[in-house]
Structures are given as structure tokens and as C-alpha cells.
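Model the whole thing, not chain by chain.
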Amino acid sequence: MPRPDVPDLVERARRGEARAVARLISLVENGMDGAGDAATADLRAVAAALAPHTGRAHVVGLTGPPGVGKSTSTSVLVGALRARGRRVGVLAVDPSSPFSGGALLGDRVRMGEHATDEGVFIRSMATRGHLGGLAWATPQALRVLDAAGCDVVLVETVGVGQSEVEVVALADTTVVLLAPGMGDGVQAAKAGILEIADVFVVNKADRDGAAQTVRDLRHMMSLDGDERGWERPVVPTVAARAEGVEELVAALDAHRDWMDAGGERRRRRLARARSEIQAITLERVRARIGDVSGADGLATLAERVVDGELDPYGAADELAGTVVAPQH
Amino acid sequence: MPRPDVPDLVERARRGEARAVARLISLVENGMDGAGDAATADLRAVAAALAPHTGRAHVVGLTGPPGVGKSTSTSVLVGALRARGRRVGVLAVDPSSPFSGGALLGDRVRMGEHATDEGVFIRSMATRGHLGGLAWATPQALRVLDAAGCDVVLVETVGVGQSEVEVVALADTTVVLLAPGMGDGVQAAKAGILEIADVFVVNKADRDGAAQTVRDLRHMMSLDGDERGWERPVVPTVAARAEGVEELVAALDAHRDWMDAGGERRRRRLARARSEIQAITLERVRARIGDVSGADGLATLAERVVDGELDPYGAADELAGTVVAPQH
């Protein structure tokens, strides 16, 4: 396969060409999979070419327990944003599924009404059997959509659990969806999901108990409002009938404006950049450790630990002497 | 609190003093929690003092879906090993619970019959709110029990999921427990749990369908026997009535002897030592990254990434120049 012309792809992506966007995300994914030196070089070329064109998009993460209506909510949100003339990117992330293709297909079908809209980019990502791979690829995929001129990028997590919280950490604004009668309060509190929310949605608001769930949440939010400087809104919706979606868009915009006014968006982005740079650096050290051989190589040190000559901390001291730069 | 006399504690632990064993494990846990420089120094002192006295114990991991009878099986296994005059350590590990104390209490009650036996050490460990902390503390706790003269250390995982697989990676011999009528085949295959087993137990073997489950597993195992050089045995048990436990002990001994004969135990321990040394070294690099400041410090590089002057990979290049030793 010929090496891709990355600057040309980025140029075409910036003009909104869907195929160039898709190709760039694939390059990013392949580079993350450790598919060889060429793939890594492509990934680096993509990251470098994107850098000057990123930082505009409002990244919105949507999360919540299974069955709460995340997919439907994402879809109606796309419609409402398009109606305002905004370009929208959607990343549907499934940390629990190793099947990228399946998720992609399901997503295309589900997002059928937006599939032919040139102002919408939809991409599904899965772990592809490479644990942790998703955490690496998602921020780069976000950058591609950002550079492609998306005003808003929605990151929807399909799976559940810890990885969900990690993925949401990529967003400027995190929306937590709940529904009445799911025992949400306890479950959500347990998963630490209330803590990460900037905006709450109580979906299926036409069901019994919805008003109570909304009242409970609003009461909880009013208690911690001053601490954050942002009283987190609770938006009742019926996504299946597109009810409450205008209010949700307004809440997202309000949060973005609040973040920009006080410098909070920049603070969040700096924190994200720090973790990303650190993770890449550590990955590089891991590779260096694999390269060291001889008496201070990992294999020899492991033998000495197994033979009881050295403890793992002493072994790490010796290894660090080779791979870690001395402190000035 | 005065600094502990680590060599004295290790000496007393080697003589089988339960309080010294418990204190050493606590020192290890505190050091892992990042409870300050003194705690880290204690951890290092403990690891160094233990090194010459480790490597004897046969480490057996027990895992399987909730409700399969892991706790009961562990308890009767302790009884059978004690009847043979062996010293036994038990680490009950719950990756999903942040509550160390609760698990401890439950365990003490459950293991009541062994609680006063001087040849048995029982310890419960939980994450104590520190994600990943358990993965760090467990191998050190194993070393304490090993040095204390345990012939066998049983590591029982209470939680479920990925962390279970990681914890089991600490064992010389991994026992996977299944029970009839739990839809185990599919579930276990999905979780990759069949792959990690060295010995299978079909517990509750007096229930309907047990014979079929045993036959199915034996057939599967006969298919891949040659590949590993070890045909993985399937042992039916009724742990609640201590049935099949002698056969299980025999299977564990046979696996240990097979590993020792062909060098497999050493290979597994070398692999474990390698990951442990690598993890400690990376943690050290992480700390170094936190110390670097100025133009090539993480904070400044993050600003340049957010401002689009640099991509995260270019930033990692600059950071690596400071924290990673140049390659010779």
C-alpha cells in the first residue's frame, strides 16, 4: 500500500470531504494498534498536520446506564444542531466490544436519517481486541473531526463501567443521561457518574416518577452549585419524540459559554493534554525497556529477582539507571 | 509512629508469627497507597528483606463466576492441605470493593474453623479506593506469605471481570471453578477464563447437568492437550460436603510437579518478575515527569499543544529528551 499523502488528506478533510476524514481516522486507529513502524509514522504525521487546525470544536460526551436512550438522544441532538446550521461529528465508542465492524454497521443504520447529510460525520470505534487502544485512538479521532470543521463533536459511549468514565474525560462538557425508575440514583452514585456530569438529562420524562427524579436531582445540584460556579442543569427529555432537545442544546451552549468566560475550557484542555503527553512518553519508555539487553536488561534482572538475589524495587533501580535520564 | 524494625519483623514472620506477617502485609499495603516517603521506604525495606526467603511457595489462584462456590472451595482446600501438614496462606482479593475492613470481617467469619490454626494465614485485600493499588500490593503480600514459610498460597478473587484475570496472572497454577446450569460455557469463553485455567473444578457436582459439563470440558481439554504438554484436568467437587477435594489437591500437586519438571514454573515467574520490574520503573518515570518544570516541563508542553503549536507526539519527544536516557 502506498504511503498516504497526509497534508493532502488534511487539506481535503478541512474542506469537509467525508472520505478524507474517514481515511485520517483509520490512519490514527492503525497507528494506535501498533501495526508497524509505517503506521506509527503515519499517525505522527497526521497528529502534526492536524495540530494547527484544532481547538475549535465543542466536545460533548454523553454517558449513562444501558437502556437510558443514549443512542436516540444522540440522534435527535444531531438533528437539533444541524437545524441550527452547525457541523456535527459523532464518535460512538464501545469499550466493551471488540467488534468495530458490527458497531459501525449498527450505527449507520441507527443514524440512518443523518447518513447522507454532508454536515455530519459519524464514526464508530471499538477496542478491536487491543485493550487500552481506544483510550489512545479517541483523542486523535476527535482532533480529526475538530480539524474537519465540526462545531460540535458528540462522543457517545455504548459500553459501561470504568472505561466509560475515562472516555468521558475527553469531553469539554459531559452529559449524564438518567431515566426514571431505573434505580438510577444509587447506581449512578456508585459509579461516580454524578460527579462527572456538567449537564443532566432525565430521558423518558413522560414516564411515572420522572418529575420526582428531576426534582431530586435539581435539589442535589442546588446544594453544590456555588462550589463549582456552575449550577448543573437537569433537562427532562423524551428523546423518542424529540421533546426537550432545544432545552438540551441551550444547556450545552450555556455550559460552553460559561467555560469560555472563566477559562474553565482551557483548564480542562490543559489537563487532558498533560495526561496525553505523559501517556505517550511512558509508552516510549516501555519500548526503551524492551530494547535494553545485557546485565541491566529486563530479562537478566527478572532472573535475579526469581533467584532471590534482588527484589523488584532494587531491580527497577538498576533498570532506571539505563532508561531514565539522571536528574539535574 | 516509630519506624518499624523490618529485619526483626521478617525474622519473626519466618518463624511463623502471625502478627509479624500481618504487620508486614500492612506495611506493603501502606507503601502501595503512596502514603508518603516513609511508607515507601518501609515498602522497599520489606521487599529487600524478603527477597532471599522467597520462591518456595506454590501460588494457586482460584477464580470463576459469582455463586460458583469459590469461598467454600477455598475453605475446604485449606482443610485438606492442613491435613497433609502443609502451611497455607490465603489472600482473598476483591478488586470491586473499596472496603478492606468489611471484606476482612466477612472472611474471618467464613474461615472461622481455620481462624485459630497457626498453620494458616488469612488476609483479605481490597482496592481501598486506589485503582490499580491492588495489582501492586498483591505480589508483595504473596512474598510475605511465601517468606513466612507457606507451602501453598491460595489467591481467591471475589470480584469479577478483567481485574480477576490480572490477579490470577500472579499464580503458578490457576484453578477455574464452574458449576452446572450457569450457562458457564459461553460466559467463561467470553471472559477468556477458559484460556487461563490450568485446572478446572466443576463444583456442585451433585446437581443436574454436572456430568455433562464435566464431559464437555474434558472433551475440550483433550483437544488442546498436546499443544501445552499438560492436559488440563477437570475435577468434579461438592465443596459444601468436601467431596472431590482430595482429587483437587492431587491435581494441584501434579501441575506443580509438571511445571517444575519442564521449567514452566520458572518461565512463569520470570514473566511475572519482568512485568513487575517494568511497572515499578514506569511509575518512577511518571514521578520524574511530575518533577520536570520550565520550558520542557509537562505544563508548558501542554499549553503549546492546546494552542496548536505542537502535537502531543512532538511534545512527548521534547519531554522524553528530559526524562528518558539517550540510547547508546
